[in-house]
Amino acid sequence: MTLPTYKEMWQQADEVWTRTARPARTLIKVGVATCSRVVGAEETLETLRREVQARRLDADVMLTGCLGLCYAEPLVEVIRPNVPGILYQLMTADKVASLLETAVAADSRKHRPLSCARRLRRASWCAAAEARGSDRRSKEIRALGPRRRGVLDGSEVGISV
After folding, report:
1. What is the pLDDT at residue 105?
2. CB 27 within 8 A of CB 20
3. Which residues lie across from 62 on neighbouring strands?
4. What angle do the packed helices 136-143 and 113-131 form, to 10 degrees?
5. Considering the domain boundaries, does residue 11 fall inside one?
6. Do the beta carbons of residue 83 and residue 35 sit within 8 Å?
7. For a tag site, which of 2, 58, 68, 99 has the least CB within 10 Å?
8. At 100, which CATH number?
9. Domain that holds residue 45
Protein backbone atom coordinates (compact mmCIF):
# COMPACT_ATOMS: atom_id res chain seq x y z
CA MET A 1 0.00 0.00 0.00
CA THR A 2 1.36 3.41 -0.94
CA LEU A 3 0.37 6.64 0.69
CA PRO A 4 -1.08 9.35 -1.53
CA THR A 5 1.13 12.33 -2.26
CA TYR A 6 0.31 15.78 -0.95
CA LYS A 7 -0.75 16.90 -4.43
CA GLU A 8 -3.18 13.98 -4.77
CA MET A 9 -4.71 14.69 -1.36
CA TRP A 10 -4.98 18.40 -2.19
CA GLN A 11 -6.73 17.65 -5.48
CA GLN A 12 -9.24 15.35 -3.76
CA ALA A 13 -9.93 17.92 -1.06
CA ASP A 14 -10.25 20.70 -3.65
CA GLU A 15 -12.86 18.71 -5.60
CA VAL A 16 -14.95 18.22 -2.46
CA TRP A 17 -14.57 21.88 -1.44
CA THR A 18 -15.60 23.11 -4.90
CA ARG A 19 -18.78 20.98 -4.82
CA THR A 20 -19.61 22.48 -1.42
CA ALA A 21 -18.60 26.12 -1.91
CA ARG A 22 -19.72 26.49 -5.53
CA PRO A 23 -22.34 23.81 -6.15
CA ALA A 24 -23.56 23.04 -9.67
CA ARG A 25 -27.10 22.65 -8.32
CA THR A 26 -28.91 23.86 -5.22
CA LEU A 27 -27.25 22.70 -2.01
CA ILE A 28 -29.16 22.63 1.28
CA LYS A 29 -26.92 22.38 4.34
CA VAL A 30 -28.29 21.50 7.76
CA GLY A 31 -26.14 22.15 10.80
CA VAL A 32 -26.30 19.23 13.22
CA ALA A 33 -24.40 19.55 16.50
CA THR A 34 -25.21 19.19 20.18
CA CYS A 35 -27.00 22.55 20.36
CA SER A 36 -29.12 21.86 17.27
CA ARG A 37 -30.01 18.24 18.05
CA VAL A 38 -31.84 19.37 21.16
CA VAL A 39 -34.16 21.60 19.10
CA GLY A 40 -34.85 19.16 16.25
CA ALA A 41 -32.09 19.49 13.64
CA GLU A 42 -31.97 15.75 12.97
CA GLU A 43 -35.71 15.70 12.27
CA THR A 44 -35.30 18.72 9.99
CA LEU A 45 -32.49 16.97 8.11
CA GLU A 46 -34.51 13.77 7.62
CA THR A 47 -37.61 15.70 6.55
CA LEU A 48 -35.56 17.73 4.06
CA ARG A 49 -34.01 14.60 2.56
CA ARG A 50 -37.40 12.90 2.28
CA GLU A 51 -39.17 15.95 0.78
CA VAL A 52 -36.41 16.77 -1.72
CA GLN A 53 -36.54 13.19 -2.97
CA ALA A 54 -40.36 13.04 -3.02
CA ARG A 55 -40.62 16.32 -4.94
CA ARG A 56 -37.76 15.33 -7.27
CA LEU A 57 -36.08 18.69 -6.74
CA ASP A 58 -32.74 19.38 -8.38
CA ALA A 59 -31.05 19.83 -5.01
CA ASP A 60 -28.68 18.06 -2.65
CA VAL A 61 -29.07 17.91 1.13
CA MET A 62 -25.89 17.91 3.18
CA LEU A 63 -25.15 17.52 6.88
CA THR A 64 -22.74 20.09 8.27
CA GLY A 65 -21.43 21.04 11.70
CA CYS A 66 -22.07 23.90 14.05
CA LEU A 67 -21.94 27.47 12.72
CA GLY A 68 -21.75 29.00 16.18
CA LEU A 69 -25.21 30.61 16.10
CA CYS A 70 -26.70 28.36 18.76
CA TYR A 71 -29.55 30.78 19.54
CA ALA A 72 -30.83 30.33 15.97
CA GLU A 73 -30.74 26.53 15.69
CA PRO A 74 -31.77 24.59 13.76
CA LEU A 75 -30.02 26.46 10.95
CA VAL A 76 -30.46 25.61 7.28
CA GLU A 77 -28.35 27.21 4.55
CA VAL A 78 -29.60 27.22 0.97
CA ILE A 79 -26.91 27.77 -1.66
CA ARG A 80 -28.00 28.16 -5.27
CA PRO A 81 -25.46 27.97 -8.09
CA ASN A 82 -23.58 31.27 -8.53
CA VAL A 83 -25.48 32.94 -5.67
CA PRO A 84 -24.32 33.47 -2.08
CA GLY A 85 -25.99 31.21 0.45
CA ILE A 86 -28.88 32.26 2.67
CA LEU A 87 -29.21 31.09 6.28
CA TYR A 88 -32.62 30.31 7.75
CA GLN A 89 -32.95 30.12 11.53
CA LEU A 90 -35.34 28.10 13.69
CA MET A 91 -36.01 25.82 10.73
CA THR A 92 -37.88 22.92 12.30
CA ALA A 93 -39.26 19.92 10.40
CA ASP A 94 -42.75 21.44 10.18
CA LYS A 95 -41.37 24.39 8.18
CA VAL A 96 -39.54 22.29 5.57
CA ALA A 97 -42.39 22.29 3.03
CA SER A 98 -42.58 26.10 3.08
CA LEU A 99 -38.80 26.37 2.79
CA LEU A 100 -38.71 24.09 -0.24
CA GLU A 101 -41.58 25.92 -1.95
CA THR A 102 -40.20 29.40 -1.42
CA ALA A 103 -36.42 29.11 -1.25
CA VAL A 104 -35.58 26.06 -3.35
CA ALA A 105 -38.29 25.56 -5.95
CA ALA A 106 -39.00 29.30 -6.34
CA ASP A 107 -37.23 31.78 -8.58
CA SER A 108 -33.96 32.88 -6.97
CA ARG A 109 -34.57 36.53 -7.96
CA LYS A 110 -37.04 36.80 -5.06
CA HIS A 111 -34.21 36.56 -2.56
CA ARG A 112 -31.67 39.20 -1.62
CA PRO A 113 -28.62 37.27 -0.45
CA LEU A 114 -26.33 40.28 -0.48
CA SER A 115 -28.44 42.13 2.07
CA CYS A 116 -28.47 38.96 4.17
CA ALA A 117 -24.67 38.82 3.99
CA ARG A 118 -24.51 42.43 5.18
CA ARG A 119 -26.77 41.57 8.11
CA LEU A 120 -24.56 38.60 8.96
CA ARG A 121 -21.50 40.90 9.10
CA ARG A 122 -23.48 43.29 11.29
CA ALA A 123 -24.52 40.37 13.52
CA SER A 124 -20.90 39.32 13.92
CA TRP A 125 -19.97 42.87 14.87
CA CYS A 126 -22.84 43.03 17.33
CA ALA A 127 -21.88 39.73 18.95
CA ALA A 128 -18.28 40.92 19.30
CA ALA A 129 -19.40 44.23 20.79
CA GLU A 130 -21.71 42.47 23.25
CA ALA A 131 -18.91 40.10 24.26
CA ARG A 132 -16.78 43.14 25.11
CA GLY A 133 -19.70 44.50 27.15
CA SER A 134 -19.68 47.36 24.71
CA ASP A 135 -21.58 50.35 23.63
CA ARG A 136 -24.85 51.84 22.61
CA ARG A 137 -24.68 50.56 18.98
CA SER A 138 -24.79 46.90 20.03
CA LYS A 139 -27.88 47.69 22.13
CA GLU A 140 -29.52 49.35 19.13
CA ILE A 141 -28.85 46.35 16.91
CA ARG A 142 -29.97 43.95 19.62
CA ALA A 143 -33.25 45.87 19.93
CA LEU A 144 -33.94 45.16 16.25
CA GLY A 145 -34.37 41.47 17.09
CA PRO A 146 -32.80 38.30 15.66
CA ARG A 147 -34.05 38.89 12.11
CA ARG A 148 -32.12 42.14 11.87
CA ARG A 149 -29.10 40.70 13.62
CA GLY A 150 -28.21 38.55 10.68
CA VAL A 151 -30.22 35.38 10.20
CA LEU A 152 -33.43 35.14 8.26
CA ASP A 153 -36.24 33.59 10.25
CA GLY A 154 -38.16 32.51 7.20
CA SER A 155 -40.70 35.36 7.28
CA GLU A 156 -38.78 37.20 4.55
CA VAL A 157 -39.75 34.48 2.10
CA GLY A 158 -43.19 33.70 3.50
CA ILE A 159 -42.32 30.99 6.01
CA SER A 160 -44.24 31.39 9.22
CA VAL A 161 -42.19 31.11 12.37
Report:
1. 72
2. yes
3. 29
4. 130
5. no
6. no
7. 2
8. 3.40.30.10
9. 22-157
Q: What is the pLDDT of residue 132?
A: 54
Q: Indicate whether 95 belongs to any domain.
A: yes
Q: Is residue 1 part of a domain?
A: no
**Residue 146: predicted pLDDT:** 52
Rounded CA separation 146/161 (Å)? 12
Question: Is 41 within the bounds of a domain?
Answer: yes
Torsion-angle region of residue 68: left (phi > 0), alpha (psi -120 to 50) or beta? left
Residues with pLDDT less than 50, the chain = 108-109, 111-122, 125-126, 147-151, 153, 155-161
Task: Specify the length of the chain in residues.
Answer: 161
Cα 135 to Cα 95, 124, 142, distances in angstroms: 36, 15, 11
